[in-house]
């Protein structure tokens, strides 16, 4: 009898444990980091778990490539994490789940993330909440100030054009025997900022993505700069297809005077360049149409593959609160996408003077972003334009095709990709 | 040995009731299915099923991975890949990168196969002679085969990049650095060189084994007849080595068409599309680009499969013709 009651007690205990574990399901979060974003997230998760006994959030830190290449395949196959940190926000939007029913205050989300919530929506008129932008980023140039000083050439002013910058950087490179004046990250997103500045409208009157003379001017200028040696050929010419390559490695080795990268590299610049030379972030150079970079960022998004939407909603609601957003921005040295936090300002205690200054330049630079740049970033098939740009422009750089042919092929590739994606 | 045999016997005896039951149910002539069944199942899942899936993807469109969500497209994917205004001008093709990758693969295969056969044969002939440190040299030539293709590519990238070892050497000698991997002609050249360097040892080994199997008395007879070395090579060595040469030819050809890993790490298929081969095109189209065009990738892989089958038939014909010629003599 005693034995039987023991067995019963054990069974009841196991059943209760089972019930307890189903009360708050575990959730998996896929995270990539440029600097320390996942480490900071891990700390915030600990706090969330302490405030919500029984909740368990498993953080999987993965390389950026995994998020770009493997996550879409996982999602297409109906697998995947519950939440992911993604940079290709619109393109994955059909995989997001609406967490609006699980957030405490919908108005708080609309007030503070209103300008970027549409980036995560799949259709026009959609009012769902699918996640939030954890970091606002902006593409923009960094300059090796030490080289300018050594060459005794002044830095062009805030309204200087791309031509003026190219000219100045060329002179500096020549005076200091630096291999090349400039390089842009091998990325269609990076290319889009100057293209918009050179007059690319990106969308036609019907709202469809389209190439115009402005885009063609940008392609022509960029290819010409490669041919005359202004641009370091290694970055774009050193690879095939549409693969990504950044310029920071070459910049930190002192092989470039100026690079076009983005605000997310500030931490890396501070860490990897150290005291080797002085670097500064400068406002985006101007073209005839604008002085624009490209907005962007990474977002925490709730994924359809989750079996625990309630827990996902609760966790994202926690992460989106002002205290967490401010801490995340402050510790990762990033620009917050939260209106309230941005208004109050963020302290960056771990940022050195150069990083502080760079953050200031990028934050104020968001005001000069052209509407076409915002529209392109929010367009869910923006990769259909960006990826062929990289492939075809590289072909033009290495002499396989002409600039005209490159532009024609970008248009054809883009049309094909959009057609397939819309099927 | 006896312990091992006993253990093996014991292990199989455990299954005796199963085999007896199988024999009773299936009959002694069909009991074999019971043995091959597990393997057939595995092959079906991992070989036949992907082939069927590939066919499904090739004839459907869209960007969804789940076959049920993919609209039927008929021959559209093939039309997209194969459509050209002028087949002598790659640029006029709708999917010119596909054609460039085919052209690059064919060019690479022809050059690399010929060079690989030549260098493997020469190396095997040299290593078959009584040279000083023969064991050491055999090891040296075989060593790259042991390395992972990614390691091979990284080593060569380190040598060939703008600030690499080769350019450092050129600069030290007062010469201008070269665009080894940034110039499309040089990049192609180095892809061929690296591929030969990495795999030659394996084929040399096969040919060396063939050379050592040739009876010594044939050479002794030739020596007594005062045959010149070139005649010995042409009349004795090469004909007797032909079966090994055909094996090497087939293996090198297959490897050349499949080339991906080393090239992808070394050049990324670039500059431009100078070293983009067909397997990389399939990978890029289906998996690397953000808008995954699975249908196009599957159609391209089917075209590749058809090409490989044609190539295999030609090789079979050639080897049969070779055999027939030998018998005639």
Summary keywords:
heterodimer; A: alpha/beta; D-Maltodextrin-Binding Protein, domain 2; eight-stranded mixed beta sheet; B: 329 residues; mainly alpha; 0% strand; globular; signal (chain A); ABC transporter substrate-binding protein (chain A)
Question: Structural class per helix/strand content of chain A?
Answer: alpha/beta
Number of helices of chain B: 14
The CATH class name of the largest domain in chain A reads: Alpha Beta
Instruction: Estimate the strand proportion of chain A.
Output: 5-15%
The largest pleated sheet of chain A is described as: 8 strands, mixed
Largest sheet of chain B: none
Strand content of chain B: under 5%
Q: Give the CATH topology of the largest domain in chain A.
A: D-Maltodextrin-Binding Protein, domain 2
Question: CATH homologous superfamily of the largest domain in chain A?
Answer: Periplasmic binding protein-like II
SSE string of chain A: HEHEHEHEHHEHHHHEHEEHHHHHHH
Q: What number is the mean pLDDT of chain A? A: 91
Cα gyration radius of chain B (Å): 26 Å
Roughly what percent helix of chain A? Answer: 40-55%
Tell me the distance between the termini of chain B. 48 Å
Number of domains of chain A: 2
Q: List the chains of the largest interface with their residue counts.
A: A-B, 41 and 41 residues
Q: Flag low-confidence runs of chain A.
A: 15-22
Q: Report the principal-axis shape of chain B.
A: globular
Q: Terminal Cα separation of chain A, in Å?
A: 67 Å
Number of helices of chain A: 18
Structural class of chain B: mainly alpha
InterPro entries (chain A): Bact_solute-bd_prot1 (IPR050490), SBP (IPR006059)
Family (chain A): Belongs to the bacterial solute-binding protein 1 family.
Protein name (chain A): ABC transporter substrate-binding protein
Subcellular location (chain A): Periplasm
What topology does this entry show?
The complex is a heterodimer of chains A (423) and B (329).
Chain A: H1 2-23, E1 27-31, H2 37-51, E2 57-61, H3 64-76, E3 83-86, H4 106-113, E4 131-144, H5 145-151, H6 162-176, E5 180-184, H7 188-197, H8 213-227, H9 233-237, H10 248-252, E6 256-262, H11 266-273, E7 279-281, E8 295-302, H12 309-319, H13 322-332, H14 339-344, H15 353-365, H16 371-378, H17 383-397, H18 403-421
Parallel strand pairs in A: 1-2, 1-3, 5-6
Antiparallel strand pairs in A: 3-8, 4-6, 4-7, 4-8
Chain B: H1 2-14, H2 16-26, H3 32-58, H4 76-82, H5 96-128, H6 134-146, H7 149-160, H8 165-172, H9 184-213, H10 216-224, H11 229-258, H12 261-266, H13 278-288, H14 294-328
